[in-house]
Design a protein that fits this description.
With 177 residues, the chain is of the alpha+beta class. The chain has 2 helices and 12 strands; from the N terminus they run αβββββββββαβββ. The longest helix has 35 residues, at 2-36.
Length: 177
Amino acid sequence: MNRRLLGKYDGKKQGWLHGAKKFILLFIAVFLIFRFVIGFSVVKGDSMEPTLHKGEAVIYSRITNDFQRGDVVSVRVPEGEYYVKRVIAVEGDTIDIRDGNVYINGELQQESYIKGQTLPQEGTVVYPYELQENQIFVMGDNREGSMDSRSFGVVGERQIKGKLLLHAGLFYIKTVK
């Protein structure tokens, strides 16, 4: 009878250990996915309106370093914070801001997603500005309410944490264009 009781005890113990192993493996897999493949952030202000709004969750891909004009990215700014901004110009582009508009390589940009006029801000950039290798110029879509490359300067590709894939408001999920 004692053997039977001990046998039941050993089975329960092994079942618990088996479950713990699964949990640990799942935890490690989720950690690695969020560390190296995707990231999650919450929009903190109104600088990306009307595209993104304060409090919306965003998911971004960490596995790309091919950033194009129009991409929405999570970027680490010089102050150490992370902002969500739109890529306006990439290496080799010349950006100019005049008359409330953005010009890339001398061509007026048609930006249907912006709110407000695009005016220069006091900062480190003198226009026209030619971006060098691995430099990216980012701005918020709410041009009159955004701290971006106009004030803190261009960012390096290494400062970009990822390209946005999805954003979710309270009751909806949309892909970011």
